[in-house]
Amino acid sequence: MEIKTAFREHVSLSDLEDFARDRGWDFAGWEPATEVSPETYTWRTSRNIAVHRISDELIGLHYLILTSTDRDALVALHADLASRFDVLEWPEALEEANASVDPLSKITSLSNLAACAPEEFDEGIFSLLNERLLDSDDDVREVALIAICRISWREFSSALGNVITQDTSDNVRDLAETALAVINRRDDGGQE
Question: Element (H or E) spanning 3, and its range?
């Protein structure tokens, strides 16, 4: 299981390294960015949680993905992070995304939502992203598709099929194909 942890304010790599050192985490590695994956720093905690710091250039944010088989340990670590940093919780991000009206605020709020969306399906996020796939602004639709890639719920498959066949923008249609491929890979047990 995983919990995504996004921040309201930028948390530098050195701030996170200090936090990790204070908590006794072991540095587990660094992966440079590639065409298909963002730059990632990884630590392991004493409770065997993998903490991945993602530098996601597509949505313009740094966020964490915490992974473990121990849900209670994940929740405790997320709370510990929230006690030190200004964490953006997904219900707040969804509320902000629903309230956004202009293209820039829609793009910003969709990026934030992608960085902290839950692993489990949520009808509110699903509805909002489906609505944003119909937005009149190409950039908003593109960021909605990037968010769908990051969230990767199979429930988006039908809507992505519609975008692939009906959207007026070549870039949007191409991104929808990519998003559908990401979801299908994850459904087949692969990774993004």
Answer: strand 2-7
In the listed set 43, 61, 88, which residue is the last one of a domain according to the structure?
Answer: 88
pTM attached to this predicted model: 0.88
**Residues whose CB falls within 8 Å of the CB of residue 95, separated by 6 or more in sequence, listed in order:** none
Instruction: Give the tokens for residue 39.
Output: 């730059």
Domain end marker among 63, 88, 113: 88
**pLDDT range class, residue 192, cuts 50, 70, 90:** very low
**Helix, strand or coil, per DSSP, at residue 135:** coil
Let me know if 82 is exposed, middle or buried by CB neighbors in 10 A (0-12, 13-18, 19+).
Answer: middle
Residue 8 per-residue DSSP state: S
75 with 3: CB under 8 angstroms?
yes
Rg of the chain taking only CA atoms, in angstroms:
17
- Give me the phi and psi of 137, to 5 degrees please: -90, 125
Exposure of 122 in the CB half-sphere (CA atoms within 13 A): 17
Residue 176 has pLDDT above 70, yes or no: yes
Interatomic CA distance for residues 162 and 73, integer angstroms: 40
